[in-house]
Amino acid sequence: MSNQHPHYQVIIVGGGQAGLSVSYYLQQFNISHVVFEKNRIAHSWRNDRWDSFCLVTPNWQCQLPDFPYQGDDPQGFMLKDEIVDYVEAFADKVNAPVNEGVAVTRVRRGKQGRLEVTTSAGEFTADHLVVATGGYDIPIVPDYAHSLPDHITQVHSMHYHNPQQLPDGEVLVVGSGQSGVQLMEDLHLAGRKVHLAVGNAPRSPRLYRGRETTEWLYDLGFYQMTVDKHPLGDAAKHKTNHYLTGRNGGHEIDLRKFALEGVKLYGSMANIQGATLEFKADLTKNLDEADDVYVRIREDIDRYIADNGIDAPEEPPFRKVWEPEFDPTILDADAAGITSIVWAIGFRPDYSWIELPVFDGRGHPQFKRGITREQGLYFIGLPWLNTWGSGRFLGIAEDAQYLAGVIHDRLKQLAAA
């Protein structure tokens, strides 16, 4: 690659809310940069979410740089189309130098120390590169899914839109993270007979003692806690988020209540052999552990209320409304009438295009506040990049401002050298 290729002080890969936020602050420093977006602005919100999708966090947490939520329902939860409108309006405000439809296919260190960037629109060089692609590149489907008979439809949550797209019959949803439980509810409310493979995701109250739980947690400092002070340390980056929903004004999700309403619960998915579905004997354990987290959150709020002398209504103690008689481990899909499976067990990132030594043995980038040990390479928009809010609308502004400041200082030092 020659020095005649277009050069930028900064190249941002990804034109979502994280990449746009970095652009916003780089513009304030008059730093030359370009944003490469392989699809179009707000693509994943528009195309990779189901029809009834809404935010899990309330609208007041939408705090993109100098662009807080502008609507009249700060306690509500934006629907899919409203999220798209919010991100697109932010993009209009930022007016970032975005090149849509440009995929970055390779990043490596050049002979002169610059970062060499190969894209579908040609070759470029940069002093700094910010990876703002998120971590939801490759939908996870287990290898044993290939043994499922062809007459049973399989779809990943990324490609699920509504109950009508699935064939008539009963549905198995695999995974009880935020997506899994919301899709289970979407199907259940549509009158479908649903089976749910319950994993180890924790759950949270939605409202408690007269207030929305995220408001309590914000006051308790949970959203401000940095990853280096988290009890789990870096392991927090890989923990599953608590499940609850913003649907119809927001409510908590108690899987035991859904069991009383006819949803069939199983433990974690273990294997598939033909139409025989196998589960781990951990349903009771997973339900209990999710409830333990739920109760601990309530107890944290109780202590905060007591310590600060806050006048808040009392709540009855938690009680289990349903218990499994046993942990089922085998299910004949055909005999049960299951005609489709929805995989909701997450995604894995694809950083194969980055040819720089910044990844651990599992392919996860290593950084501190988004800054890697490789000079000029940064990440943003990932869970626990610095705080709990880092992967959400709430914390992106702080992370973007910090990275832009680091880049500005490094460019200034280089110019003075």
UniProtKB/TrEMBL annotation:
Record InterPro entries: Auxin_biosynth/cation_transpt (IPR050982), CHP04046_FMN-dependent (IPR024000), FAD/NAD-bd_sf (IPR036188)
Claim: Oxidoreductase is one of the keywords in the record: yes
SUPFAM superfamilies: FAD/NAD(P)-binding domain (SSF51905)
Keywords: Oxidoreductase
Gene3D superfamilies, per database record: FAD/NAD(P)-binding domain
Keyword Oxidoreductase: yes
The protein's name in its UniProt record: MSMEG_0569 family flavin-dependent oxidoreductase
Provenance organism: Candidatus Methylobacter oryzae
